[in-house]
Design brief:
694 residues; binds (2R,3S,4R,5S)-2-(hydroxymethyl)piperidine-3,4,5-triol
Length: 694
């Protein structure tokens, strides 16, 4: 794995892939190839198209980073205006630096004191590259950027691609879309200040791919704020994507001497969706997640939200904790309601001080009870928000985003704090730092329950930079808290899965994927998350939710939640001894296979939508152990038996396991090629099967 060079052509060599960039004689960086490896001396520049009055040759190029200007009319990656009003960038290549695993290509405007550097990094053992761009103002006058994308990516070939993204919602995060892009442009974006529940900050492009076959090209923007992914197919058949911070209501100003690095992009190529997701899974654990917990298995967590909502106090929480400990939980998390005048969602946000009526002796008493039960303690906060009915807002009404001439709209009776103000950042850091210093807290759930509106930013010289500064402030505070309290895990939550993105994964140890904890809906939500993010970061709760009167059996709910970071969230006070014993059975079972689930490779064998069965096989890194989860909701008379073809096991090894009343001892090759017949004759069929190599 390395950066190879052949003259002015650079080959980024990853495990099975070459990503090739060449600088032409005019100084443009062309993407010459992205696919299977070829002899490096063969790579060359393509022949240009025949220009005519309406088709400029420059507009057909697969550039690495298109500036606005000249005769290029497609979407650009960067657009800036200079002090004299010129709004075009004419880049010249001024330097290329390669190390074993990094490449930097620097371009400078031929007239103005602006340079930008495209940085690439390859990773041993992966077909993944990360990219960033750094812009520098070498002069003294401000340079204003209207668009500053993190990467432009041109795809190979000219046939149309299917583009996968999401059209989700609260409670339906990750609902997939697969759109054939044969012309025009697709835009996936958030304008809300967080990455949101609807569209996702990535593109996945494929032609004829499935779990096991077909080339899949993908790129993720590591950013939790407003984003924009533009994917277009032009008149030459070229499909391109730009990924970056949303250029809607956007401005970024570089003062003289300043540099700025845009959020990173993680891009890769896989053979089939399975390979794509397994690479991202391992890459996330090895290279992205914060180091303190990346290689540690996450604990089985209990969360009080669905059981008690805002009605928390030391007695009831202790009673829940007793049951949670008996059920096998290792971390007890008290959710909303513990602070200020927080008895409903109408009041209290911002007042991060323990409610003395609910906890007369502070949090210490509950934490001690929880610790004595053998569990760690965790706490919920929503630091970016304020209720107008709070002491914080009464003292600092100007701390919330607003325009002086407009009424700021409340959502869930709350406003968004102006996180670009140093005094707001200091207040939040101090409140959380004090809580963590004074209490034995091992986990923080950082929530964010509404999008931005009335984003005044009156304190900023360039108010539209607020979109960037806000998210950056969130990351900075989390990073500082983690540095000061390295034993504390952080979870990213935003009204369910409103901040499930690779930006969050660089700072948080796990994420909350959805408030919808219905096990059947969850199969689809979790599939979408696991397809594109590391499995261990996917918090998955077993709860009592029963929106559709499905009365899903407890064992079935465990089967689904054990496929991620298992957690419990039901009202355990209503659980019988048998229920608690069943919980204990499954939490013990989970702990025995947790390393394989959280650090292994996931093979999706059967799909709930296509096959009516959700069968996921997690294989340990040495392929000595695997765990198979099978769940099916319905069945019917004469339903055809499904063969279950395994994957990911070693062909020549013998694997043993029990399924129903059958003891199986078969080779990996047999399980893959002949498979096991699955004849499901039961509603809510579910099996958790532990597989060992002999
Ligand atoms: C939204 C989160 O997604 C829930 O899990 C819970 O923490 C509530 N907020 C609390 O207000």
């Amino acid at each position: 794995m390395s950066i190879l060079a052949n003259g002015n052509i650079y080959i980024l060599e990853t495990k099975n892939t070459h990503y090739v960039v060449g600088i032409d004689r005019h100084g443009y960086a062309h993407r010459l190839h992205w696919g299977a490896k070829c002899p490096i001396t063969d790579y060359d520049f393509p022949r240009g198209v025949n220009e005519n009055a309406t088709i400029p040759e420059l507009d057909s190029c697969r550039l690495e980073y298109t500036p606005f200007g000249k005769t290029m009319y497609r979407e650009c990656a960067i657009k800036a205006s200079f002090a004299d009003g010129c709004r075009e960038i004419n880049p010249e290549a001024v330097g290329a630096k390669a190390t074993d695993d990094t490449l930097s290509l620097t371009f400078r405007d031929e007239y103005y004191p602006l340079s930008y550097t495209l940085q690439y990094r390859v990773y041993e053992g992966f077909d993944i590259i990360t990219r960033t761009v750094t812009v520098t103002n070498h002069g003294t006058d401000d340079i204003h950027f209207e668009k500053l994308m993190s990467a432009e990516i041109a795809l190979p070939g000219t046939k149309p691609f299917h583009i996968m993204n999401t059209n989700g919602a609260w409670g339906a995060e990750g609902t997939p879309t697969n759109t054939l892009l044969d012309g025009g442009e697709l835009v996936f974006e958030s304008r809300r200040g967080h990455s949101g529940h609807n569209m996702s900050p990535y593109f996945i492009a494929y032609r004829n791919a499935d779990e096991r076959s077909g080339e899949v090209f993908y790129a993720h923007l590591a950013w939790s704020g407003s984003f924009r992914i533009e994917v277009s197919r032009d008149l030459f058949g070229v499909t391109r994507a730009e990924l970056g911070m949303n250029s809607f209501d956007f401005e970024h100003v570089l003062e003289g001497g300043e540099s700025f690095t845009a959020p990173a992009v993680i891009l890769g190529r896989g053979i089939g969706f399975g390979d794509m997701s397994r690479q991202l899974n391992r890459f996330g654990v090895q290279h992205v997640l914060p180091k303190n917990f990346a290689d540690k298995p996450l604990p089985v967590l209990y969360n009080s939200w669905e059981a008690t909502e805002f009605d928390v106090n030391v007695t009831d929480q202790t009673a829940l904790a007793v049951k949670a400990a008996a059920a096998g939980c290792e971390l007890f998390v008290m959710d909303d309601g513990w602070f200020g005048a927080r008895n409903t969602d109408h009041a209290g946000l911002g007042d991060w001080f323990v409610n003395k009526e609910k906890f007369p002796n502070g949090l210490g008493e509950l934490i001690q009870n929880v610790n004595e039960l053998g569990m760690d303690f965790g706490l919920w906060v929503e630091p970016e928000m304020v209720n107008p009915d709070s002491d914080l807002f009464r003292a600092h009404p100007d701390w919330a985003y607003h325009y002086p001439t407009r009424k700021a709209n409340e959502i869930r009776w709350q406003l968004v704090l102006n996180m670009t103000k140093p005094e707001v950042q200091a207040y939040i850091f101090d409140c959380l730092d004090t809580l963590l210093r004074e209490n034995n807290i091992k986990y923080i759930k950082w929530d964010m329950n509404r999008p931005f509106s009335e984003t005044g930013g009156e304190n900023l010289a360039h108010p539209k930079m607020l979109w960037y500064y806000h998210t950056k402030a969130v990351y900075d505070i989390v990073d500082r808290l983690k540095a000061a309290h390295p034993e504390v895990q952080f979870e990213s939550c935003s009204s369910g899965g409103g901040r499930c993105d690779w930006g969050a994964l660089y700072h948080y140890d796990q994420v909350w994927t959805s408030d919808n904890t219905d096990a059947i809906d969850r199969i689809v939500i979790q599939k979408a998350y696991g397809l594109t993010h590391p499995i261990k970061t996917m918090r998955a709760w077993v709860t009592d939710i029963n929106w559709y009167n499905r009365n899903t059996p407890l064992a079935f709910r465990f089967n689904i939640a054990m496929r991620g970071a298992l957690s419990l969230g039901g009202n355990l006070k209503h659980y019988s001894d048998e229920d608690i014993a069943l919980c204990r059975h499954y939490t013990d079972l989970y702990k025995s296979v947790r390393n394989t689930v959280q650090f292994g490779d996931l093979y999706r064998l059967l799909d709930i939508d296509e096959d009516e069965i959700a069968a996921d096989l997690y294989v340990s890194s040495g392929k000595t152990e695997a765990v198979l989860f099978i769940a099916s909701v319905n069945t019917r008379c004469m339903k055809k038996p499904q063969p279950l073809y395994f994957d990911g096991l070693e062909d020549d090894r013998i694997y043993t396991f029990d399924i129903e009343d059958q003891h199986v001892e078969k080779s990996g090759a047999y399980l893959k090629n002949v498979g096991l017949p699955l004849d499901i004759k039961k509603q809510y069929y579910n099996q958790v099967i532990v597989i060992k190599a002999k």
